[in-house]
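Hey L., structure's done. Input below.
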Amino acid sequence: SGSKGAILTRPNEAGSGVNVTHDSYFKTVNNGRTYAFDTVTSQFNELEGSDVVKIGLGLWVFISPQDNGQLPHLVP
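Output:
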């Protein structure tokens, strides 16, 4: 169990923890869509950019090449 399902936070400039959204988590890549798999209904659900990132959530992300044609490193 641990922190699984908890909302991921990162410190801001003031050192306070702020919720990480999908937009802020993937801000360095050209991501078109992000999905999470629901094991109860056996379906993929598209996530919005403003949705928070939860610890332990498996994500499927569709990315596009950068301006130089290369795919980015995916280590947020």
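The chain has a mean pLDDT of 83. The beta strands are 9-11, 17-19, 30-38, 43-46, 59-64.

-- N.
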